[in-house]
UniProtKB/TrEMBL annotation:
InterPro entries: EmrE-like. The keyword Membrane applies. The keyword Metal-binding does not apply. Keywords: Membrane, Transmembrane, Transmembrane helix. It comes from Candidatus Giovannonibacteria bacterium GW2011_GWB1_45_9b. It comes from the Bacteria. Signal peptide: none annotated. This is EamA domain-containing protein. The chain crosses the membrane at residues 6-25, 37-56, 62-83, 90-111, 147-169, 175-195, 216-238, 250-271, 283-301.
Length: 302
């Protein structure tokens, strides 16, 4: 299987996980700090991959691995914060576009990756399609935009730096070893939220919801989907250009729309997806752009 196949599968699992995140943030853990804390704690589940390849790294690479994991979790915190201030359709285009530009710049400048013309065309098509898939026709009031734009950009920077550091480590170390060590960074970053009295109170308040078996089971199951998706995507990054793997994120939005549209017909109280003719045409256009980009990348890319 090519790295593209792993990226496609990973983004499908991530789409399922994001839908679960929306429901959890709405019904179980409404505070971003509380949810980020538990994401960090549950990341220790990566120890199950120790039999597949684990060894001690140099102190420098352990630090970089922890930094990559911490950046990712803090990125999730800012992403969840932005989602509380605006709709996902407003937040996702900002995060996607800034993350794609930053990864492309860092991979080309620091890692000297040579992108072919077909790679660049495919990347532009996939990023454009991703934005089309995630945009809505209205952005709300100016105050709403100013409220979410800062945490959204912060999330993009942190996601980009985390992805770049992971790619750097994958060049010289085994995939599972880097993945396991980076989860240590997520765990420590999750614990850091407990150092703040305000965040600690939010974590304690959110933990009361976890006493319900159904709520705690929902979070664990959703994190399993998210972890497997992240594993597949990071494996794709270890085998292919990080910028192009990130550009494939448009598939996640396509999966989100298809799954969300289906669920909104049966569970409108949990998932609400616009099914107007204009919205559907926009999503179809976005999926076509992403599909065309994948076709060019798969058959003509470097």
């Amino acid at each position: 299987m090519s790295w593209i196949s792993f990226a496609v599968f990973g983004y499908f699992l991530q789409a399922v996980s994001v839908l679960g995140d929306k429901i959890i943030l709405k019904k179980i853990l409404p505070r971003p700090s509380s949810y980020a804390f538990w994401q960090g704690i549950l990341s220790l589940g990566a120890v199950i991959f120790i039999p597949f390849g684990f060894s001690f790294l140099s102190a420098e690479k352990i630090f970089i691995s922890f930094l990559a994991g911490a950046f990712w979790l803090y990125g999730l915190f800012f992403f969840f914060t932005a989602l509380r201030k605006a709709d996902a359709s407003n937040v996702l285009p900002v995060v996607l576009s800034f993350t794609a530009i930053l990864i492309f710049t860092m991979e080309g400048f620091f890692l000297r990756h040579q992108f072919s013309s077909a790679d660049l065309i495919a990347g532009v098509l996939m990023v454009s399609g991703s934005i089309a898939l995630s945009l809505e026709h209205r952005w709300g009031h100016g105050r709403k935009i100013r409220g979410f734009i800062v945490p959204a950009i912060a999330a993009a920077f942190l996601f980009a730096f985390s992805t770049f550091l992971m790619k750097y480590l994958f060049l010289n170390e085994s995939f599972f070893n880097v993945f396991i060590w980076s989860r240590g960074g997520l765990f420590l970053a999750g614990l850091s939220f407990a150092l703040s009295s305000d965040f600690r109170n939010e974590i304690i308040a959110g933990s009361k919801s976890l006493k319900r078996p159904r709520a705690s089971a929902s979070i664990v199951i959703n994190k399993i989907f998210g972890a497997l998706g992240a594993l597949s995507i990071f494996f794709a990054i270890s085998r292919g250009p990080a910028a192009l793997v990130n550009a494939l994120q448009g598939l996640q939005y396509a999966f989100l729309f298809l799954i969300g549209a289906s669920l909104s017909l049966w569970l409108p109280s949990l998932i609400e997806e616009s099914l107007s003719p204009k919205a559907i045409m926009q999503k179809i256009f976005g999926m076509f752009m992403v599909s065309l980009g994948i076709f060019i990348l798969y058959f003509y890319g470097n």
